[in-house]
Amino acid sequence: MTPTLNRLLLAAMTLYATTVDADDSTMPTFSLSSFGTLGIVHSSEKKADFTSSIYKPNGAGHTRDWNADVDSLIGAQVTANFTPQLSAVVQVISEQNYDNSYRPTLEWANFKYQFTPDFSMRLGRTVQPAFLLSDSRRVGYTLPWVRPPGEIYSLIPVTSTDGMDFSYRLHFGDLTNTVQGNVGQGDFRMPNSGGRTLARDSWGISNLTEYGALTTRVTYQKTHLTVESFNPLFDSYRRFGDEGNVIADRYDVKGKPFDFVGVGAVYDPGSWFVMGEWGHFDSHSVIGAMSAWYISSGYRVDAFTPYVTYARSKTLSETSSAGLTTSTLSPALAGAAAGLNGALNGILAASSGQQTLSLGVRWDFTKNMDAKLQYDHTRLDKGATGPLTNFQQDYEPGGTFSLLSLAIDFVF
């Protein structure tokens, strides 16, 4: 838990103490809920691993033909109601971490104060409301698919913040509109000694509209992003004087503004659903700028829901750079400069986009449990590596790969 989160929770506990002093007869009540996914994934790509998150060190493909680390997790959530206005929630999840352990981590940890039935504030760790399914994306049972489409849901590298948020709800007949704002910061560990990803001065606002079977969300999020794994590359560029400093200033990821805008909608009258989301980010750094979207639909037949999803992501920034001028350098320095230029261009090309067609079926075979079978075929743009990691020496970026995923989700 970060020092900032410790201070925020201490402040909220002080608020609770003040509230209890005003009415000693108020006793807290507690509730516990649990959820999880048991999944296994097979990948056709044997020279790299498919992972569901950039924070996982390996996955299906090269490391294991069939891998259970990609989607499997178990979580528990405790909710405490101290007064009619004051409550708290703690959610802990155990899944594959950056260091290949299953050490439990805090996903949620916040106090909530309900000023009115329609206006509330939370203090502590919350999930950024960037997508339609941000609040429930870790609870597989609430999803129609094995996992959310990666083209969209991987656009934001920081998914939670330690800070505060507010929510204000308005009612217009059958229409409900909720405005949510958040401020805070976040720290995340990267695998394979990649250091940390840091988000500072984060803030955002989203608007959720519900009208019958239709739900829409519009979001804007902004943060200042630092990715420590890029430090060695751009520190080396700076050793080449003014030209190297210009390149490093342009591409380095140290406190750079990261802007995201997203739009999503789902229509679900009960027997079928159709949903889609679009998102765009600009990192003002080597990570570049990218847009992505997906559309998904399914039809419910008794306990079975077959579905289809198409997703596409595309870079909107440069995929190569001239880099350092090597012709004026000595042979030794020219070789080093060429190596830096190659590394930079590899990073720029790696995020150039992909497209995925997914076919699957969900089977709700008993209360609070489901089983899913999903097939994904992904075509990477030239030079792109997409969601793959742990590359072997003879891996070639671009091309295609397929996944076969099986999962059992449960809540209780």
Explain what you see.
The structure is a single chain. The chain is of the alpha+beta class and 412 residues long. The chain contains five helices and 20 strands. It has helices at 3-22, 150-153, 231-238, 241-251, 331-350, and strands spanning 29-43, 49-50, 60-61, 66-67, 73-81, 86-95, 105-116, 119-127, 160-172, 175-189, 196-211, 214-227, 256-267, 272-282, 289-299, 304-315, 353-366, 369-380, 388-389, 399-411. The protein has a 16-stranded antiparallel β-barrel with strand order 1-5-6-7-8-9-10-11-12-13-14-15-16-17-18-20. Helix 3 runs antiparallel to helix 4. It starts with a helix and ends with a strand. Residues 3-24 have low confidence and may be disordered.
Question: What characteristics describe this protein?
Answer:
three-stranded antiparallel beta sheet, 16-stranded antiparallel beta barrel, alpha+beta, globular, 412 residues, Porin, disordered N terminus
Please specify the SSE layout and strand pairing.
Layout lengths: L2 H20 L6 E15 L5 E2 L9 E2 L4 E2 L5 E9 L4 E10 L9 E12 L2 E9 L22 H4 L6 E13 L2 E15 L6 E16 L2 E14 L3 H8 L2 H11 L4 E12 L4 E11 L6 E11 L4 E12 L15 H20 L2 E14 L2 E12 L7 E2 L9 E13 L1
Antiparallel strand pairs: 1-4, 1-5, 1-20, 2-3, 2-19, 5-6, 6-7, 7-8, 8-9, 9-10, 10-11, 11-12, 12-13, 13-14, 14-15, 15-16, 16-17, 17-18, 18-20
Helix pairs in contact: 3-4
Overall structural domain count: 1
Largest sheet: 16 strands, antiparallel, barrel
Structural class given helices, strands, pairing? alpha+beta
User: What gross morphology would you assign?
Assistant: globular
Average pLDDT: 91
Quote the beta fraction.
Answer: over 45%
CATH hierarchy: architecture: Beta Barrel
N/C terminus separation = 27 Å
Alpha-carbon Rg, integer? 23 Å
Q: What percent of residues adopt helix (DSSP H or I)? A: 10-25%
**CATH-assigned fold name:** Porin
CATH C-level class: Mainly Beta
Quick one: how many beta strands? 20
